[in-house]
Amino acid sequence: MHWIFLSLAILFEVAGTTAMKLSNGLTRFIPSILMIFFYISSFLLLAIALKTMDVSVAYAVWSGVGIVFITLIGFLLFQEKLNFVKVISILFIVIGVVALNFSGNTHDAKKLETTEENSSSQAAKI
Asked: Which residues cross the membrane (predicted)?
């Protein structure tokens, strides 16, 4: 379930960043209001995801995927230029995010250990 909240947080963050660009330095009312809404929603969803995820993994995925999406939006919507260095740099970020995910989700393992320890100590008291 935490991956759903994290995915939504990423989408709202990307929408907020896009709205920020469209706000023209906060001089356009509707994009400015949308930016605030999207960013607040993004952080709320990220906070919910962090209840059951390691912050290092969640933040790496959140920022890494967000960078990829916003780069594509910049290229497709705002005609921003992509060059070799940008593409390689983003590729390194994606590799780092994938590597973090393969490093294991220690939050779930720690939670399981704590639950087992509590169960054992409660059983010993009985």
From this structure: 29-50, 57-78, 84-102
Structurally, the chain folds into a number of domains equal to: 1
> Cα–Cα–Cα angle for 52, 56, 61, nearest 5°?
85
Cβ neighbours around 51 below 10 Å, total: 10
Residue 65 vs residues 7, 35, 59: alpha-carbon distances, Å: 9, 19, 10
pTM of the complete model: 0.77
Percent of the chain surpassing pLDDT 90: 64
Report the C-alpha gap between 55 and 53 in whole angstroms.
6
